[in-house]
Automatic annotation (TrEMBL):
Pathway: Protein biosynthesis; polypeptide chain elongation
Entry similarity comment: Belongs to the elongation factor P family.
Segments forming domain Elongation factor P C-terminal: 130-185
PANTHER family according to UniProt: ELONGATION FACTOR P, ELONGATION FACTOR P (EF-P) FAMILY PROTEIN
Keyword entries, A-Z: Cytoplasm, Elongation factor, Protein biosynthesis
A Gene Ontology cellular-component term: cytosol
Protein name: Elongation factor P
């Protein structure tokens, strides 16, 4: 058993007969009244995100988890297939267990969180950013750079990302996986 002082991002807890992963948290100590912790929880079974507030000192049941590196192999309908990078065993996960499946490229290595009680995969953690090639975008109009103007671009995984006007087809760009936003252009 843990309490609210042990809350951190990525912690998996048992709450309302389900397992949730803490995405965000904020310790609040108001001037009047008791302290509390405001959290954003994501269900590892359904992918649903809920907001919850725990009072200070509240007991929470944490779930013991292990993390392993898995390489993405391919997608088959709603299932995504992964291979363990050390012992080459394969697992498949539902799309709802993935954070940003539209940014997943074949060969990408990510961290899979596994419940130690039953060895079932709970969720995945993408790398902080991924490098993808732009496959389609409209050409930028010359002289239209006075503001931070953006345009939609389709990357090699099929995801659509807003990019600055100077990005062209064939450019490689770094995308922040947490928000799915453009970060920078990669120069070869």
């Amino acid at each position: 058993m843990a309490n609210t002082s042990d809350i951190r991002n990525g912690l998996c807890i048992r709450y309302n007969h389900d397992i949730f992963k803490i995405i965000e948290f904020l310790h609040v100590k108001p001037g009047k009244g008791p302290a509390f912790v405001r959290t954003k929880l994501k269900s590892v079974t359904t992918g649903k995100v809920i907001d919850n507030t725990f009072s200070a000192g509240h007991k929470i049941e944490d779930v013991r988890v292990e993390t392993h590196k898995y390489q993405f192999l391919y997608q088959d309908g709603e299932f995504y297939h992964f291979m363990h990078v050390e012992d080459y065993t394969q697992i498949r996960l539902l799309e709802s267990a993935l954070d940003m499946p539209q940014l997943l490229k074949e060969g990408e290595v990510l961290t899979v969180i596994i419940n130690t009680e039953d060895n079932m995969p709970l969720s995945t953690e993408m790398p902080a950013s991924v490098v993808l090639e732009v496959t389609h975008t409209e050409p930028g109009v010359k002289g239209n750079t006075a503001t931070n103007a953006t345009k939609p671009a389709t990357v090699e995984t099929g995801a659509e990302v807003n990019v600055p006007l100077f990005i062209n087809e064939g450019d490689k760009i770094r995308i922040e996986t947490e928000k799915g936003t453009y970060k920078e252009r990669i120069k070869e």
